[in-house]
Structure formats: C-alpha cells, structure tokens
Amino acid sequence: MKWACGLSILFLLTLVFSSCERRDIDVFTLEGYLTDEVSGKPVPGVHIRIDGLKSPSGMGIITDGKRKTAGQAVTDNTGYFKAKLKVFKAAEQLELFINNNYKEGYAFTKHHISLSGLDRSSKNRVELTLNPTALLKVKFRNANPVSDEDTFRFAYYGSGTGKTSIQGRENCGTVEESEHFTWTGKDVCGIYILEAVAGYETTVYWSVTKNNETKQYHAKVFVERDVLNEFSINY
After folding, report:
1. Nearest CA to 195 among 165, 168, 155, 225?
2. What letter does residue 108 receive in the DSSP assignment?
C-alpha cells in the first residue's frame, strides 16, 4: 500500500512539474526552404540553429537580455527544413543562425523573426536564402622600390561571409611581414587568398608610404562564382 501511495505521489509531482514547464514555453512549428541567393537552387545539408530572444529594453537590443536555443534543423536535398520550437514565454523574437556548420562554398548569416507574427496553432512558413562564396587571390608587389623604408599596409574589412576571410597567405619576396598586414622594405611580394561573397563586389583597401608620404587606396572587385578571382596591386 505504501509502495502504491509512493507511486501516486511521484506521478502527481511529475504532472505538476510537467504542467509548469508547459506554461513556461510556447511551442511553434517553423518550416520553409533555403535557396542559393544567386542561382535560386536549393541548398542541402545546411544546419540552422534557432534561438529565442528577449531584450531588456524591448527595442531589439539584446545586451543583458535573455537568449535560449529553441530548436534546430538541417535542410534536406530540396532545401526544405522543419523545426519544432520550444520558446520561453518572455521571448520577443527568433534569431536563426543559418549555415551554423559552415558548409563549404557558402556564407554564414543570421535572420530575425518577430514572434508576434507567428501562429502557435499552425505551421509557420519562412523562405530563406544563403549567399555563395568564392575565393579572391590578392597579389601585391613593390614594383617601384625607393628605399628600405617603403611601407605597404593591406586591409580587407569584412567579406560579408560571416566567417574567417583569410584562407591562405604566401610570401614571395625577401621582406617578411613586420606586423599585422604590414611590410617594410624594397623586396615586398605577397599573396593573400580571401573568401568573399560571390555575385557581388567586394572592396580591397591598402596604403603605401614612400619618401615619407602615405597614400590611401581602395578598389572594388567583382567576385565571380566557381572561379579563382584575382586582383593585383603593383605599387
């Protein structure tokens, strides 16, 4: 009898705690298709993590707010994904981390969805796109050396891939990189392999100091898909 009573109490406690947990979350179903931004074709094998967010100000600023992973999904061969989300009650929006597994040849990006526009009683549809990436080979050389004080500084501010831009580097001169992206001397020659968003222009920046005069430069380079794009700097 005591054993039966113990089981009954345990069962009741389980119901109570389960009920509390259910009252503390909202359940949504989110589904849709992920396609290539350039070609429009489906992108399979991409991991999507979905977080619920609440900001202390209610203005979308998440600093010191609350974040909790609500669910995840992986796109199939047709680009389709479906996720059952358990979102904490106070959440105001969803943040989708698209390509969280860093699928090769594609950028990593984020997408936000307001929870006020979602329906708990039915499936919620969202269409997502992902930018393809390609490699950009930048070669630089001191073609007109003046002195051992010649200085070259290379800069590449954000490729839009959401990942580490530099995929490789090579030194083809006798002058070594003296500090981050800086070479000082006559025999400067180097190569950087960068990953950039394909189908768009990206900007390369550099500066040259000769005869105590520094000049700033930049150039826009269109990045084509499925090729090794190249850009040369002869200073």
Report:
1. 165
2. -
Extract the tokens encoding 75.
């796109």
Q: Looking at the predicted structure, is the pLDDT value of residue 161 above 90?
A: no
**CA 153 – CA 205 distance, rounded (Å):** 9
Q: Mention the CATH class of domain 133-234.
A: mainly beta
Q: Are 109 and 131 in contact (CB under 8 A)?
A: yes
**Residue ranges per structural domain of the chain:** 2-130, 133-234
> What gap in Å lies between CA 129 and CA 72, rounded to an integer?
17
Count helices and strands in the chain by DSSP H and E runs: 1, 16
- For 163, phi then psi, to 5°, come to -125, 175
Half-sphere exposure of 13 (CA within 13 A, CB side): 6
Q: Same CATH fold, 133-234 and 2-130?
A: yes
- CATH classification of 2-130 is 2.60.40.3330, yes or no? yes
CA distance 211 to 164: 35
| Mean of all residue pLDDT scores within the chain | 88
Residue pLDDT, tens place only, 111-155:
999 999 999 989 999 999 999 999 999 999 999 999 999 999 998
CA dist 103 and 93 (Å) reads 26
Where do runs of H (alpha helix) occur along the chain?
2-23
Q: Which of 218, 231, 166 is nearest to 194 (CA)?
A: 166
The SS3 call for residue 230 is strand
Six-digit token pair at 135?
A: 């490699």
Give CA–CA dist 227/36, Å, rounded: 17
